Amino acid sequence: MKYLICIAILLLMMTVFHYDFTAQTQSKSTCSEGWYITGYYIPREDELPGDTEEINVERVGNLSFSQEFLNETRTEGWGITRFGWALGYYSGGWHRSDSGALDAAGNLLSEGAIAIDRTLIPPGAQVQISTLPTPWSSKTFRATDVGVGITGQHIDVFTGTGRVAEEETFRITSNNNRVCFTTNATK
């Protein structure tokens, strides 16, 4: 009976003091000036009609798409086809994804994703760029992607799908931005 009372008191104390037996983490925040910010988006084939070009899509075969759509997809990495699946261009070839556009790690691209230089910002870091126009200035981004042209103090912000998202890429592209990022370090 004494043991049960001791255990009950111990559990009560852990609840009152919110004791955590797991490794405790501490956030570390770093801020710096002078960052170049660009945007990337997913073009839609139905918004980019025109002359067609035939390409070979790995494990699918030869298909024809609008040349303008293919050019945008080469630049941005992914596009949404008239068939509803995502077409990606990487490793020198065309690829199909039924689940949607993917980041460099093969995860679905989602709002709040950014491409970073991993030598400056660690993967998974939470990033804020307060110098961007609204609503971007109040967002917290996740460093989940990388890009061939993303080196040094350069961040590429994923803005979404279609023409509106493309317009946002132009609106947010700017120099001399203040960037703060937070990482968790285990004590």
Explain what this protein looks like in three dimensions.
This protein is α+β, with helices and mostly antiparallel strands. The protein has 2 domains: 26-41 and 104-186, Barwin-like endoglucanases (Beta Barrel); 45-97, no CATH class. 19% of the residues lie in helices and 40% in strands. The chain contains 3 helices and 11 strands, in the order αβββαβββββββαβ. It has helices spanning 2-17, 67-76, 163-172; strands spanning 25-42, 52-57, 61-66, 78-80, 86-90, 93-97, 113-115, 126-128, 141-145, 154-161, 174-186. A 6-stranded mixed beta barrel has the order 1-10-7-9-8-11. A hairpin with a 5-residue loop joins β4 (78-80) and β5 (86-90). The longest helix has 16 residues, at 2-17. It is elongated and about 50 Å long. It starts with a helix and ends with a strand. Mean pLDDT is 88; it is low at 10-24.
